[in-house]
Amino acid sequence: MIFDRTSLNKLFRYCMALCDQRDDAYDLLQDSVERYLTQTNQTPKNSQAFIRRIARNRFYDQQRRKKIVHFDVLDEMDIDASHEQDLESILIDELTLNYIWKTLSTAEKEVVFLWAVDGLSASQIADELDIPRATVLSRLRRMRIKVEQHANHNSGDQYNA
Amino acid sequence: MPDKPLRTAFKDFLEQNTLSVDELARLQAIQTSEERQNADTKRSAILKYSFFAASIAVLIISFVFVNQNQTTQQIHQRIASEVLTNHFSIKTLDIETSSINELKRYFTRLDFAPYLSSPLESKEYQLLGGRYCTLQGLIASQLRLRSANGDTLTYYQAHYKKEQFGSLPDISKGEQPKTIIQSGIEISIWIENSVVSVLAQNAYANHKPAI
User: DSSP secondary-structure letter at B170?
Assistant: First the structure.
C-alpha cells in the first residue's frame, strides 16, 4: 500500500488546509488518491509531494468550476530572510490562532501548513509550490502582521476595558 | 491555554484533524483495488505489447523473405535475358570441335574445366564447339550443341558466386533446375559442383506439334 495511515492523515490535514470543510477535504483526498493510483505508472521520488500537487491542482480546478476566484495580495519582493526566523519567536494562544487561521487566504494557509506541519523552509516551500521564495516569505509575513495586529487590537481592548 | 511558539501552535492546531476509522478503511480499500487493477492493466499491457512486437516481427520477416525472394527472381530473370541475347546472336566460335577433351584444353582462362553436366549427359547432342563469353559479369564458356532434331542449343558455364547468381537449385542435392521460358526459348539454370550451368534450347523442341 502506497499511503499508510500516517500518510493519509497528513494528506487529509493538507486538504483541510485547502478546503476548510471536512467533507470537502475528504472528497478531495479520495479523488487525489484515486488519481494518483490510476495516473502514476512509476512511483515518484516523493509521493507525498506528488499527491499534494494533484490535490492542489484538483482543488483549484474545482474552484474554477465553481467560479470562485482567489485574490492574492501583491508580493513584497524586498523581504529578507530574517522575517522567516522572527516567526519562530512569536508566541500565540489557541483562540488567537483560531481567529488568525480564519482570516488567512487559501494560498497563505497552504504555505503555513507546509511551514508548520511539514517543517519546510521558505526555499523548500517555494520549490514544492513552484513559486518564488519571495512569495512564500511574503505570505508568511502577512500572517505575522495579522497575528501582531490582532495582538495589538486585543491589548487595546484590554486597556480600554 | 498557555501561549505556544507560532510554528508549534499551528502544527498542533492543524494536526487535530484526523480521518475516522471508516474513512481510513475506505481509502485503504481504494488503494488495494486500484493496485490490483493496475497490476491487471500492466499485465494486459505487456500481453498487448508482446502481441504487437510479435506482429511486427512477423511483418519484418515476411518483408525480408518476400524481398529476398523478389531479388532472387530478379537475378534469375537477368541471367535468362543475358543468355537469351547470347543465344540469338550467333557469334563465331573460338574453337570448332566435337571433342569435349579438346574444349577442356582450350578453356584455360576459366577456374574450372568445362564439362557436360548430368542433365545433358542422358541426351544425345552433337558438340559443335565453344567460345568465351560472360555471365553476370563473370567469364564463362559458351558451348554450342545440336540436338537430334537439328535444333541448336547453347550451354553456358561459369564459376558460381552467390553474390552474382543468387540462390540457385543445386542438382547434386536432388533439386530441379530453375526453368524460365522467354521468346520461345526454355532457359534452365542450375548449379553443380560450384559451377553454374545455363542451357538455352527451343522451348517446344520436345513437344509434339498440335497439328
Answer: B
